[in-house]
Amino acid sequence: MFGLGKKRSKFGKFLDRNGISQQELSRESGVNRNSISRIASDQDKSPSMKNANKIIKTLKEAGFKVDNDDFWSM
Question: Is CATH 1.10.167 correct for 10-71?
Fold first, then answer.
């Protein structure tokens, strides 16, 4: 039931496909939930390098093979 009817970025679609909640990712990564929500819903928004690295590190620790370039052009 993730992303139901919402406009989503590549990052948001990834979260939806893998059943990762924004709240859970926020808690695990230390990135504010509002920041995660913003980058998950708007393709034109990208996180700061610090937050992007926290998010990617958390996803890699969870077993996902992802990189910044998969979601954002930095």
Answer: no
Whether pTM > 0.85 for this model: the answer is: yes
Burial class of residue 48, CB neighbours in 10 A (0-12, 13-18, 19+)? exposed
Q: Where do the domains of the chain lie?
A: 10-71
Cα–Cα dist 45/61, whole Å: 24
pLDDT tens-digit map of 5-46: 678 899 999 999 999 999 999 999 999 999 999 999 988 889
